[in-house]
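agent> step 3/5: call structure_predict on target 'L-carnitine dehydrogenase' (Nocardioides dokdonensis FR1436).
agent> reason: downstream docking stage needs a structural representation; sequence fetched in step 2, passing through unchanged.
tool.input:
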Amino acid sequence: MSTPQPSYSQLVDLPAWAEQPVPVAFEDANGHLNVRHYTGIASEGLDESLVELGIPQNWPADGHACFSAEHHLLYLAELRTGDKMSARVRLLGRSERAAHVLVYLLDDTHERVSYVMEEIFLHIDMETRRTAPWPDDVAAALDARIAEHAALPFEVAVSGSMQLR
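tool.output (status=ok):
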């Protein structure tokens, strides 16, 4: 990554998702958020952010779903038990059947970026359980959000290990 990660002050104005304190149950022997929970909380924030784009969490009941295809994870600062955290989502692009996103976990207690999850996720037709083109309304909403995020006044750093196909 040649571009530095956005700062807390650059990301904090994006909508907050999955806001919560780090629960004691998620603590590991080192006294911080266990590694397995970073991705879960970031995924929860991504799921919440997609609802307003026409992708509800019960989408499989309508015959659609989103499946994760690839992740790149970057741990920048530990989150400790009790720290307030939130997820911020920046959509980067989409193809006919996939989308590329960055999800940032912010440590709102110490005002810093804790974790970055880069992901490619796919639209799935649940009848065939195969990728399928985005429904027109969802594609339009994704495109609008991607354009909105592209206009943000800071660059993003991506891993370079994944791309839309």
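agent> step 4/5: record observation. The chain has one domain: 12-150.
agent> proceeding.
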